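Ligand-bound model needed. 1,6-di-O-phosphono-beta-D-glucopyranose.
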Amino acid sequence: VSIEAVIFDLDGVIVSTDELHFAAWKEIAAEVDIPFDRTDNERLRGVSRMESLDLLLGDRAGAYDGAQKEVLASRKNARYRELLGRLSPADILPGVMVLLADLRAHGIRVAIGSSSRNTPVILERLGLRAAFDAVADGNRIQRSKPDPEVFTLAAHDLGVEPVRCVVVEDALAGIDAALAAGMKAFAVGYAVRHAGAHGRATTLERVQASDLLDL
Ligand code: B16
Ligand code: MG
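Prediction:
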């Protein structure tokens, strides 16, 4: 079957907000006196805010009730939103703009499939609001990656069958979600270690439309 659409994850694929998530979570971890390093942070990639908090708290998650967790999660998000205020189009990762233009030139439709509820503000800061034909994000889904919901929603918005979609992801949970959706999965960055991906590259620099369309 021929590919008609490419669905991009946002954090870690279009922009390195993963570093800002890490900085914000690290402050919360310090407050509750839990060690939290970059390796711990990897497990939060693609995972929703509340699930991320549970992973951070680990076996101490049971010691906090729902209201206390809400307070921690909203404090993390407030700090993260502060950090997002510094984002600009200069933060779009290398290769992204060239690849988007190349896909357009091939008549391919493009969408965002992100777990993040902050997707609208991030796209706005990057000047990319009009760059995508559809945006499926954490505000519109019930179940976050590895559930396929966000990618299925993006494909539905585009009016493209899942088998004609390629997902570009940096999270292991995101590759799982793409495969569960019945889509092709192209891994970048951290996700290159996922054995199930159909293709992979360390960064999107030098990745061409043809690399995604011929998987
Ligand atoms: P928010 P993606 C994900 O975005 C991030 O990878 C993940 O670390 C984060 O916890 C999640 O969004 C929720 O983000 O707190 O902004 O709603 O990689 O799916 O674009
Ligand atoms: Mg990501």
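The mean pLDDT is 96.
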